[in-house]
Structures are given as structure tokens and as C-alpha cells.
Write a structure and sequence with these properties.
heterodimer, A: about 350 residues, two-stranded antiparallel sheet, 15 helices, about 75% helix, B: about 325 residues, mainly alpha, globular
Chain lengths: ~350, ~325
């Protein structure tokens, strides 16, 4: 029977080959991790900083991808949740009110607050569809930014909140970009694993059904409102978590960091990478964050070239850089995990 | 009190006229392509900048009675130049994406918007340009309110343009084609309409009107700056939704309605809240209006009633 099954699955026939496959499956990621460690330990701080920013945007992209890529709901106000997370840390761990909570605690609080905001926003707006939803979320994002700008007693207004606490984890103070890399890498790994498992779960299938045809999805018994609320809440939570890390990383927040452009950057990341694909999110974040850094040599022409590059990429690959076929399952097969 | 209200009304009509002109561009493009044209706000900004240079040339070479004629020429030239830029953007950045997902052209519009904004910043100026006052500094007193010639001109000229547009859309063969494609692109195509002609026309008119609004805005506030498009564009877009996106009379009504809401709402905020909320909440107020309108009447004031089925475009994004 065993040989029958392996023949059917097309898996390795001999035990020796199988063992080789398993060795490769463990060795490859370890080698990659080791290479990353060596690179980060030796790279100039500036590069590590860029890598950190890429990872923060990967977190944001992973969050937004759940709503836009999986459930097919365009959210143009995602930055609001990012801002809620960031200001949670800025307010709860700085001299602003002289509250100094632990980073890990604020990570939970910020994520929860943002998730709550996502659900509260979701309850009224999710009966809207398509562009109407996009515009309401856009309005919400702007309202949050303007509130941050105007609620001086809470957020210190346009001056922002500075001298935010250095996060401490297990006795280590996180100060340098290198330190944050070690915080962000596992965070991204956890987020990727969770979201990928969600994508494969019955909930993920429900989202896909809603994306393809909402009425048919309701017809086959999917509670569309609940599924959409979950997508909204979970994505907002990830946005909030990314915000907390961002505030700790910059140690300064002001409303300018949370403009409409920021929402659009995250949308761009997931669309340019390839909608609904976690591999695409990683590639998109890397492309959109690294590109402006590479263009730094062109100083003031930087944003001009960036905009032109965007248009060119979208015209050439309107479906994104990474084909849907190259999803995390493909990566796992490549590593020999399946 | 009556004077104060009248004053606010005049101010509201002026800013409302500007919103309405910009909103027309958003609504016409959306009506046909279902595209939120993020580049439109930059065309508004371009209009202000192009007219800035044309006005400088005009002021140097003309005077007296000839100036009126030259001013009209400046308006016409700005309209045409920005209109053609609008047509060019559609042909280069949106047309190739017509078959793709609806997100692609929207993001392409965003790229264009970044390019235009930075091009103006680099090649014109980073700093706000002092916009020349090309109208006589006259003002009249009307029942306790002071009405400037500028305001009269903006409201009057906008009204003229809107009447012209309505006539054009309702009574010419081009207008019929525009209405046909905005009703249903595929059916229009089946009926033998070359859809590229009305679509280009829509972009030409929309961009041109936006540019004229740019001239008005800059002359009203006295400055032109590369970043002026974003927030005004967002508000004009709000106006288009308020009126019912896709509807031309809706955009006009929405513009004036937003102008009124914003002016009076902001004026009332400090009074209602006993001074704790000031005028800095103007933009929050506008966006709250947007959210509330969408929640309770997504079709806007004049849009067709949107049933739940009507909102379904399978596989939106």
C-alpha cells in the first residue's frame, strides 16, 4: 500500500532520496537564516534600517491583503489602524502623560484597540460595496489623521509625540535598527504563518467566495457579514501591531506619517506584488520601499521617477509582479516541505 | 445677524462653485470608467500654475480694454492645454488598462498624480507662488454683506460654464454619445459608437473645468502651490459623491451643498459646542458628512437609487 500511495503522490520512491529531501527542507531555511544573520550583523545601519522598514510594510501589507486580496473589499483608510497602533505606544510609553507601559503589553493593547476600531468601523460600513466602501474608509482614514492633528491634549497635535520610550524585551533594550530586525523577523514570520493558515482555512475559502461573488457566497450559506467583519478586524489588528512597532522604532510620531499616501502605499504594495498572495506582499514591500532608497542619488527627481516607475510597472504587469501560482505553498514545495 | 448669514452664503457659494467645477471632472470620469481619477486634483493644480505664467505674459503685454479679452484668452488657453494633458493621461495611463482589474487604473492614476505634483515642484517652484490679482479690487455692500468682484466673477463664470456643459451634454450629438457611454459602455459599443471619442472628450472637458477651478481657487486665495490639489481634490470628490457620483447635475449640486455645509457647519461648530471645537475641525466636518451620506444614502442627492444588487460588480478588485 505504501508504495502505491507514494506512486500516486509522485513523492520520492526510495527512502534515501526522501531523507535527502528532508535534510534539504531543514537545511535551506537554516542557511538562509544564517545568511540573513551574518548580513544584518555586518551591514551598515542604514541598510538595516531600510530592511526594518520593509518588514514593517510587510506586516502592513499582510494585514491589508486580508481585506483587499482575500475578501475583495477595497480599504483606502488602512493607515488609520496603523496610526491607532503607533499612537497607542506613543501615549502609553512616553513622557506625554508619564505613562511607561511595557512594550509587549502595548503591542497587545495597540493591536486590540486597532482591531476594535476595525470592527466598529466595519459594522456600519460593510453593507456598502465596492467603491462606496473604498470611499467611506478613505474618509475614515482622513478623519483619524485630522483628529490626531487637532486633539492637542491627547496627541500633542502637529508637533507629534517625541522621546518615546525605548522598548525593552527580556532585559534587552531595543535601540539600534539591528535590534529591531530581531523583533520584526519573528513578528513577520508569525504573521505570515497565521495568515497563510487562515487563507487555507474554511474562513479563507469563505473570503475567496465573497470576493468572487458575494451573493453566491451568501447563497451557499456563508455568513458574509461575519466573515467580512473578521477580515476587517484581523487586518486592523495587524495594522495596529505594525503601528506599535513603528512608533517604538522611530521613537517619534506625528500626524504627517499617517496621511492618505500611506494608505495608498500599502495598497500599492499588495497590488504591485500580486493581489491575494503573501509572496507578492513581501516582494511588493521590498520593491516599493527599496526603490525610493535606490533613487536617493537622483535627489529631487526621486519622487518623479518613483511615480513614473509605478505607472510603468502597472502598465506592464497590471496583475502584479508575482503570479498567483508562486504562493507560499509553492515556496514550501520548493523547500521540499510538501 | 442677517448680514453675517448673507456673508457666509456668498462665501459658501464661491467655494461651492469651485468644488462643483472640480467635482464635474471626477463624476464624468467615474460615470464612464468607474475609475476614481486621483490625477484629477493635480490637473486642478496644473491649471493654477499654467495660468500663472500666462497671466504674467498677459499682464506684461496688454492693458486697459484689451486686458479683458486677453484674460478670456488666458482662461481658454489654460482650459485647452490642461484638457489636452488630461486626454494624454487617459490615452497613456488608463486606456491600456481598460480590460484589467479596476484597481490597476486607479493606482496608475496615483502614479500620474505623483509625477505631476513632483514635476511642478521641481520645474516651477516649491514655494507658494503669489497669484496675481487680475480682477479689479471692487466690492459692494449688499444687505450687510461685502461681496467682492472676485466672488461675483467666480460664481457667475462657473454658472456659465455649467450651463454650457449641460447644454452640450443634453443637446449635441457628442453629448448624446457621452451619455450613451456613461449609461453602458458595452451597449454603446454595440450600437456602433467609437467609445474612445466620448471618453477622450470627457477627459478633455473634465480636466479643462478642473483647470479653470484652479485659476479661480488661486485667484481667490492669492496663492498657487504644487501641493494644493490633494485636499481640495478630496473635497471635490466628496462633493461628487454627495451629489450622486456619475450624475452631472449631481456634481454641481453637491459642490454647492458641500460649500454651504462646510461654511455654515464650521461657523456653527464653535457656537454649538460652546467654543470647545473650533474652525480647525472644518475638514473633519466635511469628511464626516461624506461618511454619513454614504452610509444612509450611498446614491447621493441626485444619483440613481442604488439597490443592493445595483452595487454588485462581481469580482470588483
Amino acid at each position: 500500500m505504501t508504495s502505491d500511495r507514494s506512486a500516486l503522490n509522485g513523492a520520492a520512491a526510495s527512502p534515501a532520496l526522501d531523507r535527502l529531501g528532508r535534510a534539504r527542507a531543514i537545511a535551506l531555511p537554516l542557511v538562509a537564516l544564517a545568511a540573513a544573520v551574518i548580513a544584518v550583523l555586518n551591514a551598515p545601519t542604514y541598510y538595516v534600517r531600510v530592511v526594518d522598514m520593509v518588514l514593517i510594510y510587510v506586516l502592513l501589507g499582510t494585514g491589508l491583503n486580508m481585506v483587499v486580496g482575500y475578501a475583495g473589499l477595497l480599504d483606502l483608510g488602512f493607515v488609520a489602524f496603523y496610526a491607532i497602533g503607533a499612537y497607542s505606544y506613543a501615549i502609553l510609553a512616553s513622557g506625554q502623560f508619564d505613562i511607561h507601559l511595557h512594550f509587549a503589553l502595548v503591542l497587545v493593547i495597540g493591536g486590540a484597540l486597532a482591531g476594535l476600531a476595525g470592527v466598529l468601523l466595519g459594522i456600519p460600513v460593510l453593507r456598502l460595496r465596492g467603491d462606496y466602501l473604498a470611499i467611506v474608509t478613505l474618509g475614515f482614514g482622513e478623519i483619524v489623521r485630522l483628529l490626531l492633528n487637532n486633539l492637542d491634549w491627547l496627541t500633542n497635535g502637529p508637533q507629534g509625540i517625541s522621546r518615546i520610550d525605548e522598548p525593552r524585551i527580556l532585559g534587552f533594550a531595543l535601540a539600534e535598527p539591528q535590534d529591531f530586525f530581531w523583533l520584526l523577523l519573528p513578528l513577520v514570520a508569525i504573521a505570515f504563518t497565521l495568515v497563510w493558515r487562515l487563507e487555507c482555512s474554511i474562513l479563507g475559502l469563505g473570503w475567496a467566495a465573497i470576493r468572487e461573488d458575494q451573493d453566491a457566497a451568501r447563497g451557499i450559506g456563508i455568513n458574509t457579514t461575519f466573515a467580512k467583519l473578521l477580515a476587517f478586524g484581523l487586518s486592523a489588528t495587524l495594522g495596529g501591531v505594525a503601528g506599535v512597532v513603528f512608533a517604538a522604532f522611530q521613537r517619534f510620531v506625528d500626524p504627517v506619517s499617517f496621511s492618505f499616501w500611506e494608505s495608498l502605499t500599502v495598497v500599492l504594495i499588495i497590488v504591485i506584488g500580486g493581489l491575494g498572495n503573501l509572496v507578492g506582499v513581501a516582494v511588493g514591500a521590498a520593491a516599493l520601499i527599496v526603490l525610493p532608497e535606490l533613487l536617493r542619488d537622483y535627489a529631487e527627481y526621486r519622487m518623479l521617477l518613483y511615480g513614473a516607475g509605478l505607472v510603468a510597472v502597472i502598465l506592464m504587469r497590471p496583475r502584479g509582479l508575482i503570479d498567483r501560482r508562486y504562493n507560499p505553498a509553492w515556496v514550501m514545495r520548493l523547500l521540499g516541505w510538501r | 445677524m442677517a448680514g453675517f448669514l448673507l456673508q457666509q452664503l456668498v462665501n459658501a457659494l464661491t467655494i461651492g462653485a469651485i468644488y462643483a467645477l472640480i467635482a464635474l471632472g471626477y463624476t464624468m470620469v467615474y460615470g464612464v470608467l468607474r475609475l476614481i481619477n486621483f490625477a484629477h486634483s493635480e490637473l486642478f493644480m496644473l491649471g493654477a500654475h499654467i495660468s500663472y505664467f500666462l497671466l504674467a505674459v498677459a499682464a506684461a503685454n496688454a492693458g486697459g480694454a484689451a486686458l479683458t479679452l486677453v484674460l478670456l484668452l488666458v482662461f481658454a488657453a489654460t482650459f485647452v492645454v490642461v484638457g489636452l494633458i488630461g486626454v494624454g493621461i487617459e490615452a497613456a495611463a488608463y486606456r491600456p488598462l481598460r480590460g484589467a482589474s479596476r484597481l490597476a487604473p486607479m493606482l496608475s492614476a496615483l502614479g500620474v498624480s505623483i509625477v505631476l505634483q513632483n514635476a511642478v515642484m521641481l520645474f516651477v517652484s516649491r514655494r507658494p507662488l503669489p497669484f496675481p490679482a487680475f480682477l479689479p479690487q471692487l466690492s459692494f455692500e449688499l444687505g450687510g454683506a461685502i461681496v467682492t468682484a472676485k466672488q461675483l466673477f467666480i460664481v457667475g463664470f462657473s454658472a456659465l460654464l455649467m450651463v454650457g456643459l449641460t447644454r452640450f451634454v443634453n443637446a449635441t450629438s457628442f453629448g448624446v454619445r457621452i451619455r450613451a457611454v456613461s449609461e453602458n459602455l458595452q451597449t454603446a459599443q454595440l450600437l456602433g459608437i467609437n467609445i474612445n471619442v466620448p471618453i477622450s472628450l470627457i477627459f478633455f472637458i473634465g480636466a479643462g473645468l478642473g483647470a479653470v477651478a484652479g485659476i479661480f481657487y488661486s485667484s481667490y486665495y492669492g496663492i498657487a502651490v504644487f501641493s494644493m490639489g490633494f485636499i481640495v481634490g478630496l473635497k471635490a470628490f466628496t462633493a461628487a459623491i454627495l451629489g450622486g457620483i456619475g450624475s452631472i447635475p449631481g456634481a454641481m449640486l453637491g459642490g454647492f451643498a458641500l460649500g454651504l455645509l462646510e461654511t455654515f457647519g464650521t461657523g456653527l461648530l464653535p457656537i454649538v459646542s460652546a467654543g470647545s471645537i473650533g474652525t480647525e475641525y472644518r475638514d473633519i466636518f466635511s469628511f464626516s458628512v461624506l461618511v454619513v451620506v454614504l452610509l444612509f444614502r450611498p446614491s447621493g442627492l441626485l444619483g440613481e437609487t442604488v439597490t443592493e444588487e445595483g452595487m454588485v460588480y462581481k469580482r470588483d478588485f
